[in-house]
Write a structure and sequence with these properties.
AMP-dep_synth/lig_dom; ATP-dep_AMP-bd_enzyme; GMP Synthetase, Chain A, domain 3; AMP-binding_CS; AMP-binding protein; Rossmann fold
């Protein structure tokens, strides 16, 4: 089977959620067989999932039966759902029972694991034979652009990730990232690939039940995005007694250097591994990782390409950069590179448009050991008074001096900085003027109650006024 679920002891626990529901590998295999007669291969299903055992069971069964799920949050806004529905015309919806009242007038076809399969009036249409699943592009709040994944992508990602994390059947990974987020889904692929257990939850990290779940289930690893670790830092994570926790992994964007170092040092002092990673939906999540033994010496680096992958840099003319410490666009080659985007239903019939090669859109350089460092996004730069200013770099300058949430946007006339603490407005501006050598009139600092973020914790820059 695609996800190796038939290779393991049928009684071994594949997943357990914070609601007390569990799922064995035998259950996964049986459910996949059950679903075979319920809906046809190549059908398009909108899988409206929550972080629970049922979400895992249905996504797995869809993929094993060559049914194509577009994996979305069960709490997707009505307007976005309607836009996607009208654009892609799914033949089925799979919804959590607690969300069922949002979808009226559709025939219920099948019920299991707290989810209901609904039949829509839409007719089937051509879908490419190797299309495994679809995910919204990272951070999209209203775009119908989807990432097209293949079955080969799934298997390559599962192999690569399980290899560099050294995953074992005895691992019990805490999954706080959403199933509809590429890094969350990749956790499912990689842990099932080795017969490990997923401990999945939608509890907030500030909830006591969250920590009770970690301790009771003896979680051995925790994966988060920078925002996750900012919360852990505020919650005095470093004083907690979590003897079973052996691995912390970070992805989902650049983390403030000081915070990165704080977690790296804590892990070293307590016999744990800290592994920072880099990835995109377009690369089926992770494409690079920093080995734990380099976590302190090369803090801030994304490290090396994942096993079976290759990183490179291209200059503005498209030539390969061979010298260290020279910036260029980072590119990745590997079997986990997805097939391309979909903008409309006809695009689901398209084959592989990337042929295993991805231009990431990130500017980077590598050091004398071949470790890569992200400088910023190609589009996240301003030209102010003739100076090229990196917005991501400015955010790092602020976070290095003031441990406060911030976001930088702007135009070539002015940089706009959003912070959550009004009393820091002047200090933040002064720090940026000092470090960037910009004139004060080129920077405006604004207070905001809370930065807009996606469910995965990424800042939604498009929702911030940049003028």
């Amino acid at each position: 089977m695609i996800l190796n679920i038939d290779k393991w002891n049928a009684n071994a626990v594949a997943a357990k959620d914070s609601y007390g529901q569990s799922l064995s590998y035998g259950d996964l295999v049986r459910f996949s067989h059950e679903l075979k007669d319920v809906l046809p291969q190549r059908a398009l299903v909108f899988a409206m999932v929550r972080n629970n055992v049922g979400g895992i069971a249905w996504i797995t069964a869809f993929m094993e039966n060559k049914v194509v799920p577009l994996i979305l949050s069960g709490q997707t806004e009505s307007e976005l759902f309607a836009q996607l529905y009208d654009k892609y015309l799914p033949q089925y919806l799979c919804v959590c029972e607690q969300d069922l009242d949002r979808y009226t007038g559709l025939e219920q076809v099948y019920k299991s694991y707290g989810y209901v399969l609904l039949l829509t009036p839409n007719k089937a249409y051509p879908v490419y034979s190797e299309l495994s699943h679809l995910l919204p592009t990272s951070g999209s709040t209203g775009s119908p652009k989807l990432v097209r994944h293949s079955y080969e992508n799934i298997q390559a990602a599962a192999l690569n990730i399980s290899t560099f994390f050294h995953l074992q059947p005895s691992d019990r990974a805490l999954m706080v990232l959403p199933l509809y987020y590429t890094m969350g889904l990749s956790m499912m692929f990689s842990h099932f690939y080795v017969g490990a257990t997923l401990l999945i939850t939608d509890l907030n990290m500030t909830d006591r039940k969250f920590w009770a779940f970690i301790k009771e289930e003896k979680a051995t690893s925790l994966t988060g995005v920078p925002y996750s670790f900012e919360i852990l830092n505020l919650m005095r994570f470093f004083r907690m007694d979590l003897p079973d926790l052996k691995l912390l992994t970070q992805g989902g964007g650049k983390m403030p250097k000081e915070l990165n170092l704080k977690f790296a040092e804590h892990c070293r002092e307590h016999g744990m591994r800290w592994i920072a990673t880099y990835g995109q939906s377009e690369g089926t999540a992770r494409m690079a990782y920093l080995p734990s033994e380099w976590a302190i010496a090369k803090v801030g680096s994304i490290g090396l390409a994942v096993p079976n992958g290759q990183l490179s840099l291209l200059d503005e003319e498209g030539n390969v950069i061979t010298k260290s410490f020279v910036e260029g666009e980072m590119c990745y080659r590997g079997k986990n590179v997805t097939m391309g985007y979909a903008y409309k239903k006809e695009d689901l019939a398209l084959g592989d448009e990337r042929n295993g090669f991805l231009r990431t859109g990130d500017l980077a350089y590598f050091d004398e050991d071949g470790c890569y460092y992200i400088v910023g996004r190609k589009g996240r730069f301003l030209k102010l008074f003739g100076m090229r200013i990196g917005l991501d770099e400015c955010e790092q300058i602020i976070k290095a001096k003031f441990p406060i949430p911030c976001a930088c946007v702007g135009t070539d006339e002015k940089m706009v900085v959003y912070i959550t603490e009004a009393d820091k407005t002047k200090d933040v501006k002064d720090e940026l003027v000092t470090k960037t050598h910009l004139v004060a009139s080129a920077i405006e600092v604004r207070e905001i109650a809370e930065l807009p973020k996606s469910d995965a914790g990424k800042i939604l820059y498009s929702q911030l006024d940049n003028k």
